[in-house]
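Standup, Tuesday
Yesterday: got the pipeline producing structure tokens again.
Today: sanity-check two examples.
Blockers: none.

Example 1:
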Amino acid sequence: MGSLAWEVIGVFDTEGDCAEWTFPPEPGAVRGARAAVRGQLGRWHLDSLADLTALLVSELVTNSLRHADGPIGLRLVRPAELGGLLLVEVSDQVPDPPRERIARAEDESGRGVALVAGSSARWGTRPGGSGKTVWFELAIPE
């Protein structure tokens, strides 16, 4: 992983299971991120979260592709201290945080952040050394 992506997504070091990837700023990054998420969640026996997590990651990676031109970081964390949560982070080199907005019916974009906000337990952004990380949490079903 490149040092820039690590700097952004490694802002908070979290103990627990962790998987991370860096994708080039190309359209195939969305497909690659979905596949990485599905594969890792399968290895962690969290298949029940795979569809939703892949959808939300797709939205955030697509936003990064639209607004950034550098590598896109993706990290999945099962924090040891928060056993019932999955933390997902998508990082890019643009420091401006995404804004949740209400898209009109005729708009072709603008629904991704609202989808993340409405589907996750919590979400937010944090600045990095040269960009930002958008994160969200999903409850792990018992």
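Example 2:
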Amino acid sequence: MNRVNSSLERILPEQRLFLRSDDATRFVRLRPLTQLAGILGITTAFGWLLVASSILVIDAISSGSSRDQMVRAQSAFETRLDQLSAERDARAAEALAAQNRFAVALDQVSAMQSKLLASEERRRELETGMKVVQSTLREAITERDHAQKIAGSDEGLDAEAERAQEASIALDILSGELRTAAAERREAIDAASAALSEAAELELQRDEIIARNDEILAQLESAVTVSVEPLDDLFRSVGMNPEEVLDTIRQGYSGEGGPLTATAYSTRGDAALSQREAKAKQIIVTLDQMNTYRIAMQKLPLVMPLKDAYRLTSGFGRRWGRMHEALDMAGPVGTPVYATADGVVSHAGRQGAYGNLIKIQHELDNETRYAHLSRIRVKPGQRVSQGDLIGDMGNTGRSTGPHLHYEVRRKGRAVDPMSFIKAASNVQ
């Protein structure tokens, strides 16, 4: 020790602290090693204070921007959902139009087939009639020859010739009708073939549209399912039952109405259609759940009450042997203070050690308190929304300097406000 003190003597010479009283004088020797230990201790304490303050400032700044990040992420997700929904509706409309065209083509094919059958039946009748006329003509010719042999008279020949001419005319008429029927039959066959080809093409287009629609439904289902899970975790992380939260919000948003119309049913593709309808209904249910969560998040204190720079001087927990049930955020007098959730002002005035105090009662059994304000900008009974300006930071009540005392109470019991703020940031 003596050697160390001797080597340090050049840099830190020995100091003496004299303590003088009325009847005696004493002194305390500060040896170089003692001075070095004191300097190292002070340097270490100052460095620790600097690092801790930097960490708190960085954490406060990042927490202050969590609400904006959440709004941007939610807006981007809703935009993507709207795009997918619009594309799904467009594909559904195309599928319906293709199905209608397919049905029209099938009706045309059916009409062509009926016309073809009628033409075939007419042709058969004409062939039968022509056979009868040919048989009659042969009989008439035979009778004419027989009459010529027997009678040998001109009158008999004229009568038989007239009958033969009439039979020949009838045969020509039947032959023309037969040719017309055959031409109509060929036209009907060609039209039916074209209609069948168009129907097959329309069916292929319909299948492609339905497949694309199913793909869009799958993407929507995956997107909404992935997005709901973090919201469930958010409410559980702050000690709330997600099902109870959803039921409470739905009770306040339960209006419905409008005229009732008859439901139309289709007999084509019932199994596939019912599967797609079930998937679409499930997506609608999940989207409704997400929308209900969005409404609930506006009623929870998930954002910081300050948007300007501040310093977190005290957190939630034990302080000086007593429980500190809030966050203390220091800043200049007049710093704007904002509501952290939708609610109704239950108190706006002075209250003991709180100084100027604002209490806001929120749905879902939550309450926030903003104390030591220099100015109150709201009145009792006033309804406020998340982000509304409600007061200014001050130094009223039991306070050592300008700061905001921010409390969150759930069912009357104080909880850590950072648990709500961090839960919201985790949803990002």
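Quick observation on example 2: DSSP finds seven helices and 14 strands in the chain. Confidence is low (pLDDT under 50) at residues 262-267.
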